[in-house]
């Protein structure tokens, strides 16, 4: 899935769109996405000027967006459908290494379970094979009016 297909499925836009490409997708199982981290990201101006580091909350958001793409693909919803995926919870979030300009963040999210419209995922973000962050995410799909 390239950026054009991602834009059709996610409501996020610059500067909040944090997925550049989908490399692998197994419906109802897992997704592998890419976020190319560049010095041009607006958050680097203040986080931190002398040692730019991607904020952990944005790494978690990139994981959630990846999980949302998996949800949309698994539910086989048409792009442009009036459905959004909301972040519902985070458990066991851990940050293991900083993510800096020039890094390519690979995000893997897998469906742990689905119950009552709540999706639970296990997600991990890596840079050059090293774990940068991991978390358990909960999301829910809702129709918007």
Q: What oligomeric state is this?
A: single chain
CATH structural architecture: Roll
Largest sheet: 6 strands, antiparallel
- Give the end-to-end Cα distance, rounded to a whole number of Å: 27 Å
**Mean of pLDDT:** 94
The number of domains: 1
What is the string of SSEs from the N terminus onward?
A: HEEHEEEE
CATH topology: Thiol Ester Dehydrase, Chain A
Q: What is the helix tally?
A: 2
List low-confidence stretches. Answer: none
What is the H level of CATH, i.e. the homologous superfamily? Hotdog Thioesterase
Helix content: 10-25%
User: Based on helices, strands and strand pairing, what is the structural class?
Assistant: alpha+beta
For the biggest β-sheet, the strand order reads 1-2-4-5-6-3
Total beta-strand segments: 6
Shape: globular
Strand content: 35-45%
Just give the CATH class: Alpha Beta
CA-atom Rg in angstroms: 15 Å
Question: Can you describe this structure?
Answer:
The chain has 145 residues and is of the alpha+beta class. It has a single domain (3-143), classed as Thiol Ester Dehydrase, Chain A (Roll). The protein is built from 2 helices and 6 strands; from the N terminus they run H-E-E-H-E-E-E-E. The protein has helices at 3-9, 56-75; strands spanning 21-26, 30-36, 83-95, 104-115, 118-127, 130-143. It has a 6-stranded antiparallel beta sheet, covered by helices on one side. The protein is globular and about 45 Å long. The model has no long low-confidence stretch (mean pLDDT 94).
């Amino acid at each position: 899935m390239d950026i054009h297909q991602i834009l059709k499925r996610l409501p996020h836009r610059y500067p909040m769109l944090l997925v550049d490409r989908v490399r692998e997708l197994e419906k109802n199982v897992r997704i592998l996405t890419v976020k190319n981290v560049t010095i041009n990201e607006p958050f680097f101006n203040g986080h931190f000027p002398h040692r730019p580091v991607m904020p952990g909350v944005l790494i978690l958001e990139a994981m959630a967006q990846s999980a949302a793409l998996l949800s949309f693909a698994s539910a086989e919803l048409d792009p442009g459908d009036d459905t959004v995926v909301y972040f519902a919870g985070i458990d066991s979030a851990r940050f293991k290494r900083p993510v800096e300009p020039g890094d390519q963040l690979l995000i893997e999210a897998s469906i742990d379970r689905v119950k009552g419209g709540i999706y639970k995922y296990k997600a991990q973000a890596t840079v050059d094979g090293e774990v940068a962050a991991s978390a358990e995410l909960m999301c829910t799909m809702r129709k918007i009016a």
